[in-house]
């Protein structure tokens, strides 16, 4: 059973206490002594029903009503007044108040008015509760602290409200375009329907049409005698995600355009018209504008698919998100591999922050998966990441490499000053690395299998001595 939350806004403590006693058995009650504290609370949560005094000190109940209704259009507000001031009551009703009651409050009238108010939002609340449960079980994971992630979440919340508006998601490989599509579906009015994803580049050109639209019995050689539902039909009352949509064949583009225009399509080998209501979300890492100019992608389809467009930034464009994502994946792979790593070493974190992620979030996830798999200590360290050599990647973990044979060293009779000797060797190798890399510290560090932050620290220390 759904338990509704009622906010009581009244400057009289006795009124707040008495209403709490009357209502708290059946409803969750939150009370405020003034409109200002009530308005501030709206940043955190929105009540289902509000009981608010009109004649509040400083900010009036009518002013607070206007602010509340701007945030929660559907939530009913019942105004409380100690006198029959018809003008104030009319003003509040014009601003969206659901009803009003007079002081002293009659408990029977109060209960009846609240029941009416709740019945007006019951269906909306039931759907909201269902969607919250769905999100808890299916919420696509967005980890990050950057402004880019905040903008993405704002975009998702905005466009999800539509039931059928086509959305195009642009971004490099590995940025999480399917994750965005799933998040849009999870927050949309069709969240209870299916989410069907298809990679348009994964099917041969002669099969993609039958996969999308289905086929009639015996439509072609090898077809099932009972025919087959297409993915568009499978996604009826839900969301169809077309990844790499730029790879659709010309014939497939034409059929998809017809479907987007009127919700109709033909199965392969058939003449019967089928109709479904499916939200289409598309994605590509290709330049659609260029493909349209080169006449490789239909211009009319381009405009239909790109009613709403989102550009997902690469991981290199949001470096603030690298470590939060890495720590999230560390937790994920700890669970997967039954390990209990405590974190990522300081040097390894610096290496991740300095790395150029050509594969975006997917590459970072693979790096952490590999690191957790081969890690032997409590922290993921630099050597386990495999980012130290050739093109920023070393596929062989040091634990699996055959150690090089040590050189034969001879200690002089008079002994050596080991610290000075090691410092001299270090200075010489670092100098040669800097000379070979023409002063590029990052490249010099790679030549010595060092993190460039460590290299910079040692270089400065050596020449400060």
Model description:
The protein has 18 helices and 16 strands. It is an alpha/beta fold. The protein has 4 domains: 5-134, 3-Layer(aba) Sandwich (Rossmann fold), CATH 3.40.50.2300; 147-313, 3-Layer(aba) Sandwich (Rossmann fold), CATH 3.40.50; 317-400, Helicase, Ruva Protein, domain 3, CATH 1.10.8; 418-464, Arc Repressor Mutant, subunit A (Orthogonal Bundle). Strand 1, helix 1 (13-23) and strand 2 (28-32) form a beta-alpha-beta unit. Residues 388-407 have low confidence and may be disordered.
What is the number of independent domains?
4
Radius of gyration: 32 Å
- CATH topology (level 3) name of the largest domain: Rossmann fold
Write the CATH homologous superfamily of the largest domain. Answer: P-loop containing nucleotide triphosphate hydrolases
Tell me the layout of helices and strands.
Elements: E1 5-9, H1 13-23, E2 28-32, H2 35-41, E3 49-53, H3 61-71, E4 77-81, H4 86-94, E5 99-102, H5 107-138, H6 147-159, E6 167-170, H7 177-186, E7 195-199, H8 205-213, E8 214-215, E9 228-229, H9 231-234, E10 239-243, H10 250-262, E11 264-266, E12 273-275, E13 279-284, H11 288-293, H12 299-305, E14 308-311, H13 322-337, E15 343-344, H14 346-354, H15 360-374, E16 379-380, H16 418-436, H17 441-447, H18 452-464
Parallel strand pairs: 1-2, 1-3, 3-4, 4-5, 6-13, 6-14, 7-10, 10-13, 15-16
Antiparallel strand pairs: 8-9, 11-12
């Amino acid at each position: 059973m759904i338990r509704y939350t009622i906010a009581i806004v009244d400057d009289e403590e006795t009124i707040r206490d008495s209403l709490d006693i009357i209502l708290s058995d059946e409803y969750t009650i939150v009370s405020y002594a003034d409109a200002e504290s009530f308005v501030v609370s709206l940043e955190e949560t929105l009540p289902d029903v509000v009981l608010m005094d009109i004649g509040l000190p400083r900010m009036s109940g009518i002013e607070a009503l206007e602010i509340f209704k701007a945030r929660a259009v559907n939530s009913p507000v019942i105004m409380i007044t100690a006198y029959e001031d018809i003008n104030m009551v009319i003003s509040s009703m014009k601003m969206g108040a659901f009803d009003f009651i007079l002081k002293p409050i009659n408990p029977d009238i109060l209960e009846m008015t609240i029941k009416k108010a709740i019945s007006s939002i019951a269906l909306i609340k039931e759907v909201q509760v269902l969607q919250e449960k769905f999100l808890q079980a299916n919420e696509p994971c967005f980890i990050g602290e950057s402004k880019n992630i905040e903008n993405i979440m704002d975009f998702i919340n905005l466009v999800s409200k539509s039931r059928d508006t086509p959305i195009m998601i642009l971004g490099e490989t590995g940025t999480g375009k399917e994750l965005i599509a799933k998040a849009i579906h999870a927050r949309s009015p069709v969240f209870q329907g299916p989410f069907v994803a298809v990679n348009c580049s994964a099917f041969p050109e002669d099969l993609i049409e039958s996969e999308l639209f289905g086929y009639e019995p015996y439509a072609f050689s090898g077809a099932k005698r009972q025919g087959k539902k297409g993915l568009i039909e499978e996604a009826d009352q839900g969301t169809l995600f077309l990844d790499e949509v730029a790879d659709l064949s010309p014939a497939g583009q034409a059929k998809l355009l017809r479907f987007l225009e009127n919700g109709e399509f033909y199965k392969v080998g058939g003449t019967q018209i089928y109709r479904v209501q499916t939200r289409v979300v598309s994605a590509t890492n290709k330049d659609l504008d260029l493909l349209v100019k080169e006449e490789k992608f239909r211009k009319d389809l381009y405009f239909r698919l790109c009613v709403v467009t989102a550009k997902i930034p690469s991981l290199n464009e949001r470096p603030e998100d690298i470590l939060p994502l890495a720590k999230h994946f560390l937790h994920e792979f700890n669970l997967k591999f039954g390990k209990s790593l405590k974190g990522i070493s300081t040097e390894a974190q610096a290496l991740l922050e300095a790395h150029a992620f050509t594969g975006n979030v997917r590459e970072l996830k693979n790096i952490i998966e590999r690191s957790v798999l081969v890690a032997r200590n409590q922290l993921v360290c630099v050597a386990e990441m495999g980012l130290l050599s050739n093109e920023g990647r070393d596929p062989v973990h040091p634990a699996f490499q055959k150690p090089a044979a040590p050189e034969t060293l001879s200690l002089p009779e008079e002994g050596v000053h080991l610290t000075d000797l090691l410092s001299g060797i270090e200075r010489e190798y670092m100098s040669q690395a800097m000379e070979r890399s023409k002063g590029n510290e990052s490249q010099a560090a790679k030549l010595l299998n060092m993190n460039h932050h460590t290299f910079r620290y040692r270089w400065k220390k050596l020449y400060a001595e």
